């Protein structure tokens, strides 16, 4: 019988669905694998002095996991280097923050080779292999070199950049060529699919055929958008838990009748936190009558501390939050509550429910699950308003949010104002449509759609049939 093998950089299924602090990808994958007889393979997050290629198998939160230790040099060159200093900023449209060194590239190739070699003996003849995210783009190529004929799919959780941005990356063509070892390449949005095919057509003379197959470098891959969602049922259960209710009540008490704006993000420059704080400052400056009647709670958990761009961002945010509170706080009102500690998932659910405005304003984001969690947590009889960046993948489907340009402080400030004064009937109408979307396009559907497409994808390499060229974007 065929199994699903999921491969990702880190393997960290939450031990219990309610209490963990796992990020978007971990939550999504654990939910996808829990009911399957699947296997989750990846880096343990540990480093050893000398790489041995040995892995440990364990069962965590109902999921079988196989973990590989890497070396310190791998962590520096592959994870902190190529993945987080090169690809992450580039794919989030920040070429100014990209640092590229050939050693990063070498580390990236080496780790992908190590993954392939270790995974190889675990692969059964009918297994489906599903590779996650930008850390592992060359993995299918390495597996193919070692004779793997199985269907292999790839899903990119972050945006795919415009081709002019991508072509600033040294050896960009090799990176994209490696993607054609997959049978199926999944993106978060139609926009990403378009950006990818645009590159393939213009820079690699690719030909698109009617069935969504892209042909390039003598290979072919199905390319399609699969917008990721949250585990809506699990979230609804979490919301009913005692701890969620406790946090909801505690929050309401601490609000003391004030309106609460809420941001929940990893502390990352792609999330637009500085711009959000500045927009809030503009709201305060333009609306003195609101002083004392609202506050912004920003939960921003520390992330990728070893990368300098993240340390710099932290310092700037400490400064900015201090400046805003210094200018506007009074003896009994703090306008900005800026919190760096993480909260449990059930605690977070209660906090979301208490918020009048969900502020999700990234400068670029593959999808953004916080937007979906915020909607899922609302009280149907008195829902809050989602203010959502046009540059989050979520904006492609969550059209009933107040969509803003996060780079415009006036735009964001006006949307917050509009949300705070929105009549109940409009809030309900918008929320109902958003909630319907969150419930129907949940993580189960994402998994099922991807796996069904992967099963239906032709075995590699595909025959060059039906090569009717199409215009890009068709
Ligand atoms: C990547 C892509 C894409 C945050 N703080 C706490 C906490 N979180 C959880 C949230 C949410 C998750 O982390 C963040 O997910 P996002 O989707 O917003 O963003 P990334 O981490 O950047 O994820 C993104 C995602 O992959 C999935 O494909 O949507 O675009 O960048 O679930 O709730 N969770 C807990 N405590 C916190 O303090 N427990």
How would you sum up this structure in a few lines?
This protein is an alpha/beta fold and 474 residues long.
Q: Major beta sheet, specifics?
A: 10 strands, mixed
Averaged pLDDT: 92
Helix content: 40-55%
Low-confidence stretches: 461-474
- What is the fourth-level CATH superfamily of the largest domain? Glycogen Phosphorylase B
The CA-CA distance between the termini, in Å, is: 37 Å
CATH architecture of the largest domain: 3-Layer(aba) Sandwich
Overall 3D shape = globular
Bound molecules: GDP-alpha-D-glucose
CATH topology of the largest domain: Rossmann fold
**Helical run tally:** 16
Question: Could you tell me the number of beta strands?
Answer: 16
Structurally, the number of domains stands at: 2
Which class do the helix and strand fractions yield? Answer: alpha/beta
**Biggest sheet: strands side by side, in what order?**
3-4-2-1-5-6-7-10-9-8
Report what the structure shows.
It is a single chain. The chain has 16 helices and 16 strands. With 474 residues, it is of the alpha/beta class. It has two domains: 4-229 and 445-456, Rossmann fold; 232-441, Glycogen Phosphorylase B (Rossmann fold, 3-Layer(aba) Sandwich), CATH 3.40.50. The two termini are 37 Å apart. Residues 461-474 have low confidence and may be disordered. It binds GDP-alpha-D-glucose. Residues 21, 23-25, 27-28, 157-158, 228, 264, 266, 299, 301, 342-345, 348, 365-370, 373 line the site of GDP-alpha-D-glucose.
